[in-house]
Every structure is written in structure tokens, then in C-alpha cells.
Write a structure and sequence with these properties.
The complex is a heterodimer of chains A (200) and B (250). With 200 residues, chain A is α+β, with helices and mostly antiparallel strands. Chain A is 24% helix and 37% strand. By secondary structure, chain B is of the alpha/beta class. Classes of the chains: A alpha+beta (200), B alpha/beta (250).
Chain lengths: 200, 250
């Protein structure tokens, strides 16, 4: 009886894992000119070209878009990170805790929040903030910053982020790509996405 | 007992069905329209291969081993010296780079590895292709690039194509192997060791990837001379214009 139960449980667990892994691979086409909501939130964007929305998610309130794979061009939407939560899912609360967005986090502290997240989540050895300035995002006062970092793969990537805190939640869009060619190639496509972003 | 066996069989069957596309994964591709015959007047610039060898910790992290890496570098270079004459066209070794030039070359090698990983994940793994690339794939397109920056790499002005070779080998530590056994008993698949090998031919004017042979499960123990020979042969098999892989024993 015991063996039957354990066999059953194992089978169900295996089936669940298989189902999850299959679902995680379903990437979706985001068509040029068609408005779409992102990360299950009330944020919509209207892409100026076709993009791919990856099936895998790095966090509860996130969605990642790419053209050639997230290693080569990565647009991530952080759509309504609530206080007390990290930007992405923690792999280990004990061994690799991530910095949290809190009720007292200020806009000027958002770059530091992203840097801390990268250092732990991506094992970035080097992270350099290049510029920070006040800017409008989703029609609200926000922050725009640029940065550069090198991951474990020894490839230096450039990044830029647009963020705002709305009703106590963090909304942010980031674009990261290798500084060799890839960043410049899709920078304008990302900025067009940012300009099109609306909060319903 | 009979029921548990039934459920386990169902799970195993489904596992095979779901993982089937992985085994059907492609390993090499050529840019549409690109052909390189043997004995043309084209010159291939061979960049010093990127080689890193270490252990995979129990948690899956890569822990570099300097002695293994040095040994593998020497072994792979010796194997390349032997295979170089069989690439079918003139091969020149890229001049030694220093300072900013060396850093630029290193960054391009890292970019080559990142592009290769993307090709493996989103093109070679047919079931995981990106929607925007599916249309291209129907027409057998292979459209990936390192960008025009390759034209400034050392030696690039005097050659037509650049040959990039990247290897990263992580041998499973004892702890990782033990974890693998226990995970297997619990019905969870944990891999022990990782053996990445990518070889790519790049147009030194445009940066376009013309040919790529890339696999995340390469053969050959690069810490040994024979293993390195096997690895290099595997990396260069079906290289355009060469006879490597066509006349060698498996």
C-alpha cells in the first residue's frame, strides 16, 4: 500500500514537472502595432516591431521580451512589484537573499536595488552605474538610468531602465544587451516600447 | 504494487515523449547561400581558442581549475595544429594581441559564446524556437551575427573569415555525483558535468556567422591528449571545405 502511494505520488510529481516544463517553453509573438498587456498587469505597450515574449518568467510580476534570446537582447517588464518583494524570484532565501523593494524605497534608490539584484541573481562581478536622471515614465514622475555590467560569461552588457513608483508599487522596464553591437541595434526599438507604455 | 508500476510506466513514457525533441536537436548550421570549397584563395584567421576547465560543485557552480585549464589549452592547441592543414583552405594564426586589442578579442570570444548558446537554445532546439524566427526557419535561414566590430580584430584585415573556438568543461565533483545518485533515487534528473564546445566561422567584413557547430554535450576529455584530439575533430567535423569528419574513424 505504501509503495503504491509513493509510486502514485512520484508519478503525479513527474507529470506535474513535465507539464510545467512544457508550458514554460511556450513563447508568444507580440505583433507590431498591436497593444498588449504585460506581466498580467494593467500596463499595456504597443510594439513598433515584432517581439517574442518568453515563456519562462524570472519573477511573479515580470515578463521578458527578446529578439534573439535573452542573452543577446533582454527587455524585462517589472509590472507592479509590491513592497516586501524582490524584483525577481529568490533562488534561495537563505543562501542568496535578494534586496527587496520596500515602502520606504525612493526612486533614487531603484538603481541600487537593480544592482544588488544583478550581483546576486546574475552573479555580476562588475556593475557600473553610468547615469541617472529624473524622467517621466507611465505618465508619472520617474527615474531613467543607464548601466553596464559583466556576468559570469565574461560578456559586458549595457543596460537602461525607466522606473516609477505608482500607488506604492514599482513599475520598471529594462533593456540589456551586449555592448558589442547588440545594444545599439535594438536601443530605439526598446525606447519606442517605453514611449508606448500606458497604465490603464 | 501493480498500480504504482502502472503510474511509473505512464510517467516514464511521458518523460520520453516530452524529452524526445532534445535528442532530435540539431548541432550545426550554415548560413543560407554560403559555400566554401576546398583550395580557394580564401584565408581563414584562426583565433586562439577559449578554453576553461574546472569542477562542477554540488550546487552546480563552475569552479575553475588552473592546472586542468593549462593542460587542456596545450592539448587542444596541439590537436588544432594537426587538424589545421585539413581545413581545406589557407589558415593563418591570429597575431598575439595585447592591451585593449586583447580585451576586445576576449569580449568578441565571449559574444561568440553567447550567440552560440542562443543558437543552441532557440534554433537548434526546434521545439523552443522563437516565434519571430520560425518564419525564417521555414526558409532554412540561419541569421546570426557578431557585428561589424570583428573587422577590427587583430589580423582581420588580411583574412576573409575568422574561426572562433570556445570550450568550457566542468567535471562533476564527488559531491555533485553523490547528489546525482540521490536525486535519481528520488526520481529527479540532476546532471553531473557540463561540456560546452562551439566552433564558428565568421565573415570578417560583416560579422555574420557563416557556419556553426555547437553542442552543450561535447565528447572528449580535454585534460587528455587523445580526448582533446577527439574534441577538436568533433568541433571541426563538417567544416566547409574540409575533409575532417568525413574520413576519420568515429
Amino acid at each position: 500500500m505504501m509503495l503504491r502511494r509513493s509510486g502514485f505520488a512520484l508519478a503525479i510529481a513527474t507529470l506535474s514537472l513535465l507539464a510545467l516544463s512544457t508550458m514554460a517553453r511556450a513563447h508568444k509573438l507580440r505583433v507590431q502595432g498591436a497593444a498588449v498587456t504585460v506581466a498580467g498587469s494593467s500596463v499595456t505597450v504597443t510594439p513598433s516591431r515584432d517581439w517574442n515574449s518568453l515563456g519562462k518568467k524570472i519573477g511573479k510580476n515580470t515578463e521578458t521580451w527578446t529578439l534573439d534570446g535573452e542573452q543577446l537582447n533582454d527587455v524585462t517588464f517589472f509590472a507592479g512589484i509590491a513592497p516586501g518583494n524582490p524584483l525577481v524570484k529568490e533562488r534561495s532565501k537563505k543562501h542568496a537573499p535578494l534586496p527587496k523593494f520596500t515602502r520606504t524605497t525612493l526612486l533614487v534608490e531603484v538603481p541600487e536595488l537593480l544592482e544588488g539584484t544583478h550581483r546576486t541573481y546574475k552573479n555580476s562581478g562588475a556593475f557600473k552605474l553610468l547615469s541617472t536622471q529624473a524622467a517621466t515614465f507611465l505618465g508619472r514622475d520617474g527615474v531613467f538610468f543607464t548601466y553596464e555590467f559583466t556576468d559570469e560569461d565574461q560578456l559586458t552588457r549595457r543596460g537602461e531602465a525607466h522606473a516609477a513608483i505608482i500607488d506604492g508599487k514599482l513599475f520598471m522596464m529594462t533593456f540589456e544587451a551586449p555592448r558589442l553591437g547588440y545594444f545599439a541595434r535594438s536601443e530605439n526599438d526598446f525606447r519606442a516600447l517605453v514611449t508606448s507604455a500606458r497604465l490603464r | 504494487m501493480r498500480y504504482s508500476a502502472f503510474w511509473l510506466a505512464c510517467a516514464a513514457g511521458l518523460a520520453l515523449l516530452v524529452t524526445a525533441p532534445v535528442s532530435a536537436q540539431e548541432r550545426s548550421a550554415v548560413k543560407q547561400g554560403f559555400k566554401l570549397a576546398a583550395k580557394t584563395n580564401k584565408t581563414i584567421l584562426l583565433f586562439r581558442p577559449s578554453v576553461s576547465v574546472g569542477e562542477q560543485s554540488m550546487g552546480g557552480l563552475f569552479e575553475p581549475n588552473a592546472a586542468w585549464t593549462e593542460q587542456a589549452k596545450a592539448n587542444i592547441q596541439a590537436a588544432l595544429d594537426r587538424f589545421q592543414a585539413r581545413l581545406g583552405n589557407a589558415v593563418v594564426v591570429a597575431p598575439e594581441a595585447y592591451g585593449d586589442e586583447a580585451r576586445n578579442l576576449e569580449e568578441h570570444m565571449a559574444l561568440f559564446a553567447a550567440v552560440s548558446r542562443s543558437v543552441i537554445e532557440y534554433q537548434f532546439f526546434v521545439g523552443n524556437r522563437l516565434p519571430t524566427k520560425k518564419r525564417d526557419n521555414k526558409a532554412d535561414m540561419f541569421d546570426w551575427s557578431l557585428g561589424e566590430g570583428v573587422a577590427a580584430l587583430p589580423g582581420a584585415r588580411n583574412a576573409d573569415y575568422g574561426l572562433f573556438i570556445y570550450n568550457k568543461d566542468a567535471y562533476g565533483s564527488t559531491g555533485r555525483k553523490v547528489l546525482q545518485v540521490f536525486a535519481m533515487l528520488g526520481g529527479v534528473a540532476v546532471t553531473s558535468g557540463e561540456h560546452l564546445g562551439y566552433a564558428g566561422l565568421v565573415d570578417l567584413r560583416t560579422g555574420d556567422l557563416l557556419w556553426l557547430n555547437a553542442d552543450a554535450e561535447m565528447g572528449g576529455d580535454v585534460r587528455e591528449k587523445d580526448g582533446s584530439e577527439k574534441r577538436v575533430r568533433q568541433l571541426l567535423e563538417d567544416f566547409p571545405g574540409s575533409d575532417i569528419g568525413k574520413t576519420d574513424a568515429p
